[in-house]
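Hi X.,

You mentioned you wanted examples for the new student's onboarding notes, showing what a folding record looks like when two proteins sit in one file. Here is a clean example. The first protein comes first, with its sequence line followed by its structure tokens.
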Amino acid sequence: MDMYKNFIGGEWIVTDEYQENRNPANYDDILGLFPDSRPEDVNQAMEVAFTSYELWRKTNLSERAACLYRVADWLDTHAPRIAEDITREEGKIYREALQEVKRSAEHFRFYASLGYLGGGHTYPANESQLTLYSMREPLGVVAVITPWNFPLSIPARKIAAALTAGNAVVFKPASETPLTAVHLTRAIEESGIPPGVFNLVIGRGSRIGDVIVSHHRVHGVTFTGSTEAGFHIQRSVSPTCRTQLELGGKNAVVVMDDADLDQAVNLVVKGGYNLTGQACTGTSRVLVQESVYQSFLDRLIYATSNLHVGDGRKDGTDVGPLISAAQLHSVIDYIHIGIEEGLPLLFGGTIMDQGDYQKGFYVLPAVFAPVNRKSRLFQEEIFGPVLAVTPFATLEEAIDLTNDSSYGLVAAIFTQQLKAAHLFADRVQAGMIKINRTTTGLAMNAPFGGWKHSSTATFREEGIEALEFFTREKTVFMGWDL
């Protein structure tokens, strides 16, 4: 069995304890043994990052960019192998895993180029012989803590932005997907980035998470994960430590009576069931205008019933397994909650554990309808392939239902009415609005983030806005009247 290590100071370092990592499609498939790191490992990585930071900060932009381009080239070269391992350890369909690798390479190229635009400003001075300007400098040591559902692309966009800005990085990936993190680390190791600028520490968040975010060497924490964990991080960091927290979602799609129903169903299914519903931007609530409610529902159930659940490495699979037994039980618990609340379960919602499914964490995608706004299925994040469908009468009611959530990440509407689209975009309380598009999918050149409990009200990811988090501004008063 392969045994993997942490990467600290440019070397692969052995730790004392290890954990198995297993394939959620077939738990007899063991991917290897991975570190269950200790606080001492975190301390070592932090000190190395701190001492390496100055060298990287002083490295000129063209050299930094060349390193990031080499990371991208390495990912592209090894894309089939990386995608295979993403599918084995996370469960997503191979073609989606391959797209994730390609997009991750694009992130490194994007930020390699964007580093040239992250400067400051000049300002009119209120006195003669004075030049007034600002400049942006890196934060220092940044902790990057990422989830298992996009084990390469989420780390890539954070780490690429952090490195191009001149920071040193300590990376803690999700303990469910450490092999993907090892691949990314190997790409960075081969890129020419100086030893110690990037460090990988693998382990359980319950064991080392607090040590990382509260460490005195950390100047910034960028985290994607659950709302509960994000709020805990916000309470744990030093007052001088900057945070960027992307959290949960309960995303709604509104289907108006003039929508193309076939298109709407296709994109609702894509948004709700891709990645087995395990995406913060995934579709969870589907609000349908009463006059087309039954027609839409019939199409949705038919489309859901024709999805093939299976191992993501096999041709023809539409929906893979859930990440773990714990996640499977959580989803099944919510299905039971819906049934206990008296909500009609129109399709799916059962564990698949016979034949080819007996060694994986499979559930048949579920459709509940109609679901009232007070239901836990309407209000709480499930993070699984469960759609809650609710009828509405008017656009005003649909907007009110959309906003009836503690989350505010993404909301979408299907309509041909320009006025309806503008009203929806103007009045919905969410960080991202989609018109005739699914809730999933981002643009790397545009800011990403949510409102309410979906994000902290600080810094956005993606685009040039991401560099604002990884840099701090300094104002210079340059007198030249000597």
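Then the second protein repeats the pattern, sequence line and then tokens:
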Amino acid sequence: MDLIYLDYNATTPVDPAVVARMTPFFDRHYGNPSSKGHAYGWAAAEAVEVAREELAELIGADPERITFTSGSTESLNTVIKGVVDPSSRGKRHIVTTIAEHSAVVESCRSLERDGVRVTYLPVDANGLVSREDIENAMSEDTVLVAVMWANNEIGSIHPIEEIARAVRERDILFLTDATQAVGKVPVSVDSVDLLTCSAHKFYGPKGVGALWTRPGVRVRPLLHGGSQEDGLRSGTLNVPGIVGIGAAASVARNRLEVDAARHRIQRDRLENELQSAIEGLRVNASGEDRLPQTSSLTFPGVRAANLLTELRGLALSAGSACASGSGKPSRVLKAIGLSDSDALATIRFSLGRFTTDEQLDTAITMVVEAYRKVQAAAPSPVAQQ
């Protein structure tokens, strides 16, 4: 049996239509877009601008405000380290949440070591930060508020417009990490100041992403060199990758509603059938709006690691791909109130464009059988004492 892939939040396969668009830029149109004196460079530069326009259409942005990067990790580092100058006497306070992606949390921690003050706000059982907590946390020294659009582990979606309104009323910059949202749910830059995304989360290639900045927002560059991308991100542009993110954005824009509707039906069926078969199975963050293809499920009385060992035919994750293998309870799951044991009993299922109903049927059967096997082998509470 072929491996059934249910880890689309970690990464997606590149859509065949995207591959077709990228291929000529490896072997025929291989010019450097900074080469202004010949047709190879012109063709590459034109392809980059077409991709910029395609991504802009997906997120409702001005193409000129999009900077191509190597991915959201670079984009987030660029923003967080580029709007705060630890050596200056300017504003030196950042507000974010404890459930953000590691690229945000670790960037903030690096600034803390240089004396920048960071407030990490709690989230509720659905993974959402309250507007009241954000309003109370902001001060005259706050330069940036960073809240993710959608959570990569549990799928919960923040009311970004409402949060952004509260932040911008205080004349403070608002950054949203939209990595898991772009291409899956409607996303618009209308209410935010800075937004990041990565191509490989919506059927584009790895190694390319983007940062959108509102006009007037100044960010110090993280990389210096040839002043590409208006000086914000120096380095020779990854033309095939950029063509890929543009093509992926175009495909996603045309398929967004259809894909989301199908994913929602599949996700609900997965959860309902597993809950019917496994007493006590819990769906995390089920009470609020969430990504249509994401299910975070806590299996009672077993360890996720043991369950995954029995599910070699399924590609699944015990949490964020960036944190998998640590052996520690997920920071996000702990933030929404799960105990260590429950966090270590949780598996993320993330469906995708190429998940078939037949694959889902097979996966449900496999999970139920594996759970019963692992549960039967687990020590009884009396034996554990």
